[in-house]
Design goal:
Order of helices and strands: HHHHHHHHHHHHHHHHHHHHEHEHEEEHEE
Strand order of the largest sheet: 2-1-3-7-6
Helix content: 55-70%
Structural class: mainly alpha
Number of helices: 23
Distance between the termini: 91 Å
Strand content: 5-15%
Length: about 500
């Protein structure tokens, strides 16, 4: 065989599609490692969950979490293992999400290979590898990137079960589902959709032997859901604060009560998940077209994807699971797969007209990539350190005098509590704002009253609360400048962490 024939063989690794895919894969790895290695401090959401992980033992993780936090128990247990292995630091706590993010690159490529090729595969894979949200959540102490990885893995296992519904493949799917439920809350929607698709498929084929296997598998999954509900989910479901916080993220019931909610939520999700702000209707058309094409080729898999959306919205309308922003990050690979399928079909349909085909692909690629890739490039060159509290903690450690007092904004408490032992500040007592103070901000001023008469009072402000014309930082500083004298100010450039030293010994 000549070298020319060897290189032209379509089933070998050195095809153009595989080489480009390899480049995209490596770029995705570099982007995720860059984000992981920035060394940014935990921000308030991460710190709240991290405090539960580092301050509790394994058994205590099964109890309701502090700070109104919620996460799959399996995710918490894995995080605790890495915490014990590598210590109390960001890299240890973010290691599991990083692993999930890296694994998701490879598994999504494998999933795409089952359903798309050429232009559709490469565009979808580029959108996945370069997605700024997926990159970011691959280095955050939260479960959302694990949701993405679990979704892709379950769809891969389902693909094998649809193509060859043997006892072995169904058994593998059974155990994959059992593990998934421990690691990801939205895995329940995917498993319900897979079960529905398998039932329809076996009923159509009159394959009653495997039908009973599917029913048994569903019963086992439901039994585990019941166990997890008893262990952790019932406490999360009854959390009044979480239900209030996400009240706008629940679908209307009945749906016709507010049809506009669906379009508004879709547009918002396209912005937050894909950085697509222009022409979101093009995304919707591609997703719907991709599903229609897929339904003619792989009906069971198409039912699975549609069922996932259906069960997610059903849970949302029942106020069981919010359907917005990061909580629906697990839908990103499904949307991208359908977009890739639509682009592949479009490319195949007009590929005979080379100029037209090129223009159409460049146009679609420009629309879909012009939002996420510039944002990803910007984050790669200049990573964000928006609540990077460590420099302020170090400054406070080096300038703290005996007799100093400290006030923390409500948003600063979790990060301060997490980092205080690392900077020898764990014994420092403080006065802190409360979440409920924002209903009546004058309560904040009443708390500061207790600090009057002291020469050195530190004020640490992070995660500034803003609503309407109210800005927590401006509100505090306006009042402090009325009752005292600012002696020092420290702020690391590029962060949103503010540290001030005031003399409140005498009123102005």
């Amino acid at each position: 065989m000549t070298i020319e024939k060897f290189l032209k063989k379509p089933n070998l690794l050195l095809t153009r599609e595989n080489l480009v895919s390899m480049f995209i894969f490596l770029a995705g790895i570099i982007l995720r490692l860059r984000q992981y290695l920035t060394g940014r401090s935990l921000w308030v959401d991460e710190a709240m969950l991290a405090l539960n992980i580092v301050n509790r033992n394994f058994a205590e993780l099964f109890k309701p979490l502090d700070y109104d936090q919620g996460a799959p128990i399996g995710f918490l247990l894995v995080e605790k293992i890495f915490n014990l292995m590598f210590g109390r630091n960001e890299l240890a706590l973010r290691f599991f999400p990083l692993l999930a993010g890296l694994v998701s690159l490879w598994t999504f490529y494998l999933l795409l290979k089952h359903f798309t090729r050429e232009a559709g595969l490469l565009l979808a894979f580029t959108l996945f590898a370069g997605n700024p949200r997926l990159i970011y959540y691959s280095s955050e102490v939260k479960q959302y990137i694990v949701d993405v990885t679990v979704t892709i893995a379950l769809l891969l296992f389902a693909t094998h079960a649809f193509e060859n519904p043997s006892r072995r493949n169904l058994t593998v799917l059974l155990f994959a589902g059992l593990l998934a439920l421990w690691l990801s809350h939205p895995s329940l929607f995917i498993l319900a959709a897979i079960g529905l698709a398998l039932l329809i498929s076996h009923i159509q084929k009159k394959d009653f032997a495997n039908l009973w296997l599917v029913l048994e598998m569903g019963i086992i999954w439901l039994a585990e859901v019941g166990l997890l509900y008893f262990l952790t989910l019932r406490d999360l479901h009854s959390n009044a604060y979480m239900r209030t916080y996400w009240q706008d993220a629940f679908a209307p019931m009945p749906p016709w009560r507010d049809w506009n909610w669906y379009w508004t939520s879709f547009v918002e999700n396209m912005d937050t998940q894909f950085a697509v702000t222009r022409a979101p209707w093009i995304m919707l058309l591609l997703i719907l077209a991709g599903w229609a094409i897929l339904s003619r080729q792989k009906f069971s898999f198409a039912i699975t994807l549609a069922g996932t959306f259906f069960f997610n919205l059903l849970a949302s309308s029942l106020k069981l699971y919010p359907s917005l922003e990061r909580l629906t990050l697990f839908l990103v690979p499904i949307n991208l797969l359908l977009i890739g399928k639509a682009v592949e079909w479009l490319h195949q349909s007009i590929r005979a007209h080379r100029v037209l085909s090129t223009l159409v692909l460049l146009g679609l690629g420009g629309i879909l990539l012009s939002g996420p890739l510039p944002r990803t490039f910007e984050q790669f060159i200049s990573p964000k350190y928006f609540q990077h509290i460590r420099p302020s903690m170090e400054f406070l450690q080096n300038t703290w005098h005996e007799g100093d007092l400290l006030y923390l904004s409500n948003g600063a408490v979790p990060a301060f509590e997490y980092y205080a032992p690392l900077y020898g500040l764990e014994s420092v007592s403080y006065i802190a704002g409360k979440r409920e103070d924002y209903i009546n901000p004058t309560i904040i001023l009443a708390r500061i009253e207790a600090l009057k008469g002291n020469h050195r009072v530190w004020f640490l402000i992070t995660h500034v609360y803003e609503k309407g014309e109210f800005n927590e930082k401006d509100f505090l500083l306006d009042y402090l400048n009325q009752i005292g004298h600012k002696r020092r100010e420290f702020r690391q450039p590029g962060t949103s962490v503010y540290l001030y030293l005031y003399d409140l010994s005498s009123s102005k």
